[in-house]
Amino acid sequence: MSSAVRISRLPYSRRFAAVQRVTGILLMLFSTTMLPPLLISSTKAEGVSQAFLESMWLTLTTGALVWWPVRRIDAELKIRDGFLVVVLFWVVLSTFGAIPLFGADVGWDSFTDAMFESTSGLTTTGATVATGLDTMPASILFYRVQLHWLGGMGVIVLAVALLPMLGIGGMQLFRAETPGPMKDSKLTPRIASTARALWFVYLTLTLLCALTYWLLGMSFFDAICHAMSTISTGGFSTHDASIGHFNSVPIELAVMFFMLVGGVNFALHFIAFRGRSPLAYLRDVEFRTYLIAIGVITVLVTIPLLYFGTYEGFGTALRKALFHVISYGTTSGFATADPSAWPVYTPMLLMLAGFTVGCAGSTSGGIKAMRLVVFMKQVLRELYRLLHPSATIPIKLGGKSLPDDVVYAIGAFFSVYVGLTVILTFVMIGTGLDPVTAFSAVAACINNEGPGLGEVSATMASVSDVGKWVLIATMLMGRLEIFTFLIIFTPAFWRR
Fold first, then answer.
1. pTM value?
2. Euclidean distance between CA atoms 455 and 433, whole angstroms
3. How far apart are CA 472 and CA 34, in angstroms?
4. Bridge-partner residues for 397, per DSSP?
5. Is 360 part of any domain?
6. Which of 223, 334, 397, 419 could form a disulfide with 213 if both were Cys (CB 3.0 to 4.6 A apart)?
7. What is the number of structural domains in the chain?
8. Which range of residues forms the domain containing residue 118?
9. Is residue 146 assigned to a domain?
10. pLDDT digits (tens, 9 = 90+) for 413-466
């Protein structure tokens, strides 16, 4: 009898035994990520070792208790199980990830603040409620960027590479977790090999980034932390002034390059690495759109900076504009200045860049450039149909026709994404924020972008507790690309 038949005959209370089993295993795996900061804290005698030790054992024990009752149930994950594992694990992981931040008592006064920071880290949003980073324990600083790095490619994808060793299939997890419209594509014949390939590229780029930063003058610790934060397009820094702390043009240029790298489809990185051909990038329509969008927005930002004399000299204005366009567009969130004070439309344009610039399959948030390309092609097709109602007009991407169901799904995604942004903005206005601040806070979180405008340009500490919980849910929805999160709230999902 196949595993599919076995699972279908399980009682309703045991239908999700596979979900429970996987969640327990993943939670136990996550507990091991507290070892590096624990080691750093113990070595430096920072006084926060107990918080990491207790959190590690609590996470490990909880995971074991969840896994143990169903350890012998042989049940294959179904599609709905994959969605449920991903959503549950991101919520649970964010919760347990907040425990050492709250227990350390060095920057987060309430569990709400610690939960916000943990969720922001794992979703690679980079919004923070903490200050005083320059004097914060090194173990805490490392733990924050480690959350970024794990969340960047997705803890679930990492687990997919390990789950076959535990006798658990992973295709459903990969489909639910992978960002962007690339969920049915595989780089290698087996899904576990695909996950390992993606993580190999991710790790290689992180090490290369860290080495570059170190050679350009960062301390070894800062280089490692900022590399993890850059490649994950997260944005957490070890300094309150972010990249501006280093006051170094070469470091700024390096950060720009690696933010660009983090915003590119990692499947494209793998193809270029495997073929040893950079031409693979230029042949990709989304990559070309990505660079063109950054170039156009940079010009639109540079012009008012020069006209209003915000910076002296064309070179400085261009560098500042390009840095922040890349940072906001790739949803990295690093800064060398405060763009919320820039003239006319530039702050809002930077916020809007986070919606569409990043590539599918990257660590960036937002709607993604590929969806924007398809959406615009659909708009042009509908306009053409007004003139030629009987015409058959396929939408092509990279020389291949896209099925209409993919095109319509992308249209639906656009509608839901924009609609949720509007609704959540009104909710945040209801918590006491002015309209611009409310919109920028929602945009920063749903795009996993990080900084907002106005009073949330540097920190979200001024947001009420209710507002923070709304933004926590918003970050999770953005990281899981809306539908993965919303589907578990539909009645059809829970029917047998």
1. 0.91
2. 9
3. 22
4. 400
5. no
6. 223
7. 2
8. 3-188
9. yes
10. 889 999 999 999 999 999 999 999 999 999 999 999 998 988 898 899 999 999
